[in-house]
Write a structure and sequence with these properties.
Layout: E1 3-4, E2 7-9, E3 21-32, E4 37-43, E5 48-52, E6 55-59, H1 63-77, E7 83-88, H2 93-98, E8 106-110, H3 114-122, E9 136-139, H4 143-150, E10 155-161, H5 175-184, E11 185-194, H6 202-212, E12 218-225, E13 233-240, H7 255-260, H8 266-271, H9 277-283
Parallel strand pairs: 7-8, 7-10, 8-9, 10-11
Antiparallel strand pairs: 1-2, 2-3, 3-4, 4-5, 5-6, 11-13, 12-13
Family: Belongs to the spermidine/spermine synthase family.
Pfam family, one: Spermine_synt_N
Domain PABS: 5-241
């Protein structure tokens, strides 16, 4: 456990030479599941924190910046999503945001590690509020196998909330998985996946986009700010089987939903696709944009 003198520091996984640290008030949980090391602690300034294999996944202070953007970009880019698949997302944050969409009739969620769901509910994370939604079917198995078996062109939106491409999440970044997701989409469906950091993983991002170029008709990269993720930024690979302007919402939140959202708005949706110049030069060569 990477806690020394009352401070948690991340394990240097995919960002060698730098670390992010949080002051710990109390360790609430620490066990190894069948898949990974799971740590929960109460921090001094970021609320409860969920850590998997030494890497911060959720803090209650800033989680909404990631959950809202990864969910609402694909869900609002689609004119009327009825069936949604969530891959990963065991903390429940993506589920919470998908559940805000009244037009969604069915939510399938495939999280390989039940311990992540269990501790998120047990310690009452701000993300874990929608596990009782009657539209939800939660299964614990390998997502690559689940998508192959259950897809059959039924999902309007697929959201992949994965950890980094090491350990149990490695298969979720492979071209074969993106092809399986395409086959699982309904006509005009949209996929959005965790897409790593522009400051640290630009070559990886370009490689993922290149590998998906023949799979999706529309293909984009967007990002959000995220204080507790490496370099304060995380991105999303967004693809569709139709010629679709993914950077422009097809719908907008109603007044009640907009009041509850803390990061996402239609304006922020559009701006998320405007990349800094160094990233634009890399991404523009491989994305597939329609407007």
């Amino acid at each position: 456990m990477s806690i020394t003198n009352g401070w948690f520091s991340e394990v240097e996984a995919m960002w060698p030479g730098q670390k992010f640290s949080l002051q710990v008030e109390k360790v609430l949980f620490h066990e190894k599941s069948d898949f990974q090391d799971v740590l929960v602690f109460q921090s001094a300034t970021y609320g409860k924190v969920l850590v998997l294999d030494g890497v911060i996944q959720v803090t209650e202070r800033d989680e909404f910046a990631y959950q809202e953007m990864l969910t609402h970009i694909p869900c609002f880019a689609h004119p009327h999503p009825k069936r949604v698949l969530i891959v990963g997302g065991g903390d429940g944050g993506i589920l919470r945001e998908v559940a805000r969409h009244a037009c969604v009739e069915n939510i399938d969620m495939c999280e390989i590690d039940p311990m992540v769901c269990d501790v998120s509910k047990k310690f009452e994370f701000s993300t874990a509020t929608a596990f009782g939604d009657p539209r939800l079917r939660l299964v614990h198995e390998d997502a690559a196998e689940f998508v192959k078996r259950e897809g059959n062109g039924q999902y309007d939106v697929i959201i992949v909330d994965s950890s980094d491409p090491v350990g149990p999440a490695e298969t979720l970044f492979k071209p074969e998985f993106f092809l399986s997701m395409k086959n699982a989409l309904s006509p005009g469906g949209i996929v959005a996946t965790q897409g790593e950091c522009l400051w640290l993983h630009l070559k990886l991002i370009r490689g993922v986009l290149e590998s998906c170029a023949s799979t999706f008709t529309s293909l984009e990269y967007a990002f959000t700010t995220m204080p507790t993720y490496p370099s304060g930024q995380i991105g999303f690979v967004v693809g569709s089987t139709a010629e679709r302007d993914l950077s422009t919402p097809a719908r907008e939140p109603d007044a009640a939903m907009a009041q509850d959202l803390r990061y996402y708005s239609p304006a922020v949706h559009r701006s998320a696709f405007v990349l800094p110049a160094f990233a634009e030069r890399e991404v523009s060569a491989v994305r597939k944009r329609f407007s």
